[in-house]
Amino acid sequence: MHATQTTPKDLATNKSVHILARSLFREMRQQGYTEEQIIGLSTELIHLVNEDLQKRLAAE
After folding, report:
1. Cα–chain-centroid distance for residue 29?
2. What Å distances lie between residue 15 and 11, 18, 20, 48, 52, CA to CA?
3. How confident is the model at residue 21, as a pLDDT?
4. Are 24 and 14 in contact (CB under 8 A)?
5. How far apart are CA 13 and CA 42, in angstroms?
6. I need a surface site. Which of 9, 28, 40, 60 has the fewest CB within 10 A?
7. Reported pTM
């Protein structure tokens, strides 16, 4: 089993993603979206990423 090393770039990216997610969540809540709607959006995003990954794997 290989240990995964986290680089400073990885940390910056993780922090950026966290800030973006938090900002998006706050904005959606301010616009009146419910928790269920935000979960629905999150689920759809995960589904789209999964589809994209599957297509790339199939092309290899």
Report:
1. 18
2. 6, 5, 9, 22, 24
3. 95
4. no
5. 19
6. 60
7. 0.71
pLDDT tens digits, the chain, 60 residues: what are they? Answer: 455 677 878 877 888 999 999 999 999 999 999 999 999 999 999 999 999 999 999 999
What whole-number distance in Å separates Cα of residue 44 and Cα of residue 60?
A: 25
Helix, coil or strand: residue 50: helix
Phi, psi of 12 (to 5 degrees): -65, -40
CB contact at 8 A, 53 and 45: no
Q: Is the Cβ–Cβ distance between 25 and 38 less than 8 Å?
A: yes
- Tokens for 10? 């990885």
Q: Give dist(CA 16, CA 8) in Å, integer.
A: 12
- Please report the pLDDT score of residue 3 as a whole number: 57
